[in-house]
Amino acid sequence: MWNLLLMLLACAPAQDEPSGAGAGGGDEIVRLRDGRLLVGAITRHDLDGLELVSARDGGRYALPWSALYPGEAQRLKDGFGYHDEVGVPMVSASRLLLRNGAEELGVILRRDERGVELRTREIAKVIPLAELAAPPETVLVAATRVYTPEQFYAQRVTEVAADDALAQFDFARELQSVFALEPAQQHLEKARALATASGDQALLRRVDAAAGELARSLANRVEAQALEDIREDMHRDRYADAAEKLEDYEKKFPGGALRGEFLDLRGRFEERRAAAMTAFLNRNWYDTAVKYLKRKALERELSFDQLMDYAQEEVPQLVRKELLGRLREGYAKDLAEDQIDLLWKERVSAGAKRHQASYGFGTWILGEEKAREGLDEKKEDQKKDDGKTAEQKELEERTKRYLENLERERRKSKGGEEGVTPEDWWLSASPTERFQWLLAYYAEFSGDYQVTSKAFDACPTCAGTGVVQEDSLVPGSGGQQRKRSACPTCHKVGVKRAVTFR
Hints:
By secondary structure, the protein is an alpha+beta fold. The protein has helices at residues 72-80, 149-156, 165-177, 181-198, 201-219, 221-235, 239-252, 259-297, 304-330, 339-345, 368-372, 377-384, 390-414, 422-428, 431-445; strands spanning 6-8, 28-31, 37-45, 49-54, 60-64, 82-84, 90-97, 103-112, 115-120, 123-127, 137-142, 355-358, 451-458, 467-474, 479-486, 495-501. Helices cover 46% and strands 20% of the residues.
């Protein structure tokens, strides 16, 4: 009922030789809404339904999509190359980010020196300009998030061509999707009259099918409203509430007239909830990690062992704990801890945003090997293909970590090349430099993120050589000689390292 537009990816609107499901001359098993199973070849399909020739008796069945069991139509449409678009129409709205970290979404009614008057469905309020963290941002959202059915109708009705049958039909389906049922019925009848006048039989069949669905919703308004409430919660990412309402529906309407729509909705619920939770993590993971890292960057009396352990070990745990609580509150009350990592791994396919961070002038603290790792990709590739077993590489990695720990201890007791320890750099660096260092280290070594590229800038003091030269008098020789010493800025690593991650 809620899928408004069906579009063929192929050029032709109908096919005599089906592809995907039922292709290759093989028989297809099709389950009908009344429980029957038909076995046969699908000889034709279009926007309205399909035609099947029975393998048992050769009978020819013309089946509208609505006659198929919930989920069956979608399976076949996917195989035929149809694309299902989201039913609820998208509209422009304004998003206001507030100084306290919250956000407001709605339609701006007016703006003046007092503030911005924002309306979200039935509620309108004035937000003072002093509370805004940024100018209003225009975003696309589901219409039901900002408009009531009546408001959406008033907003759109003047934009629909009165003499266009297809436009009237599409508008009726939009109205149905936002639960403006009576106006939807009126515009379906307009579409029917225009299609009849022009002799558009294909559109008339679609109008008849839509009118049947709409009549069921009108006749069973309480049940239809229960389903609409579930959809509304899903559109607003209130999946925990939607899950409870799905259970309530089972109890209140065990044999409901709209049970087919309920089964469709329930069948897609888990997939949509998982996608919504991945999108939530994609939006909030980085900001949550940044919050903890910025706090730590303000602390001064810390050893670098503590700082690196915090970025590599503690921050991932803190982020997971906080986001798990928020997911349980809004999406799935019984979400298991181990599901966080599975959902987070899906972020790349969901379009993960890239971020950058730099170790800056603290790059040398990593040690020369880590600081320059990736600078010469050919050498790195040779290392990867050196023929060593996984056990040998693991042993080498453990040995390297042990030596790095010894080197850090040596620096603590004796200072760096010029008597500078990592803790000295931390104390002298600005809060922004300290935060950037922690963020880069977290991104590269915690395992939470995937590093997509590394960038290097030559040290401005030594031009990337790692050493500086100066002329000095040599006593008793009567002349000068050039003295080479470790660069006091980069401590011989020669570069500033930065990473891009997602």
